Fold this sequence. Notes:
The protein is an alpha/beta fold. Helix content is 48%, strand content 8%.
Amino acid sequence: MDNNNKYLFDIDTLSEHEIKQARDLRRKKHKQGQIIAWVVLVAAVLIIGTGLFFAGRVLARHFFGTGEKAAVSDDVDVTEPGGDGDSVIDDLFGEEEIVSVPPSEPKDDTPTEEDLFEEAIRNYVRTMTVEEQVMGLFIVTPEQITGVSAAIKAGDGTKKALEEYPVGGLIYSDKNMLDPDQFKTMIAGTKSFAKYPLFLAVDERLGKSVFPAKMKVAAVKSASEIASTGDAAVAFEEESKIAGYLSDFGLNLNLGIVADIYREPAEGETLPAFSFGTDTNTVSEMVVKSVQAVRASGMYSAVTAFPGQGYASADTSEAIASNERTREEMDACELIPFKAAADAGVTMFVVSHESVPGLSEENVYASQSKAVMTNIIRMDMGLDDVIIITDDLTKTAISAYFESGEACIASLKAGADMLLKPEDFGAAYADVLNAVNTGVIAHERIEDSLVRIYKVKFAGMTADEVNAMTAQ
């Protein structure tokens, strides 16, 4: 063998070290080849995948697009290939447009005048003692705070009574009315003694007057007579006479606008004179005009008695009463005049003592039902500012079956804001105060009711004016 041929060698002449070096070199080259192959494969997959993705978008636009410039996404503007110099490559790899997103408008947290007014009232309410706050939820007769059998003047006894019992309002009857001058003087004196503004009320109805015969408003038609004309303007005229008469005495609240829709009377029956009748539209129109008339006089108005007593089984003044109508039936009938009254700006809803299982799904009086007062009036009807007041708590449906305090606590817990004439005012006040102090009734609930009440009593004032009173 020619030993000068550098490409030939004798394996027997190689050392073990040289053999190992050759083996390692072969392994290294093999691994490098594998790595390069994998890199090429991955790159090829990525390139093919990207191409297919963009090609798919172009094809989709071509077959499903509008033929005009189409936005593939919110941020990318793709032009049809072949148009105005744009190539397929431009379509596939064109740059994304930069979309400028304007900053969102800053939220205005500036409180409104309404917010400031409510805050001022809440601060005013918080200057009261808890005893004064609880007192402010009651509307009672002057006899209930003075202890006399028939209050006919406002003297030292009234002054002392209002200092001890700063109630939210007083309601008057014929026993307080001897003649116009006497009654007007009595109301003026009562106002002058009150630490906090009062609701001064009567329940004067078209067709049922609270005044003694010699003091009744002259030439006023009854509700049934007005309804028979079919002219709601007559209701406005007649209610305006009543409102003006009450206002002249210094009264500021009439609880007597009847919004009940009655069932058709059976043979031999007649509807009450204070009823606007059986037709939903007629009753609603008459009620709206009555509310507007009272508001126009500068007085406060209340509609009675939610959710409507025209289908009740009895008069709650005399016995327990129930109304078996369904929610659907009442939504289409009895509740409509109350909704209309709210739209017209009524101040209060008087809530009846009838049980209405179709609304409350339980055998409980409407005046003690959370389903009726909170769920329906506040939530379903959206009436957050309407003051909810119970019907007269001396009526038999309440007084014969409940202790005064028990009835008042149940009504407040269910959502009532004010309590009208509990049979035993002293016991009712003491029990409600204890319920607030022990947490049975949340103190915040009482504050919320008083805010509603004082929004009405301070209507027309500014937040600054209320704050000025708070600072005194």
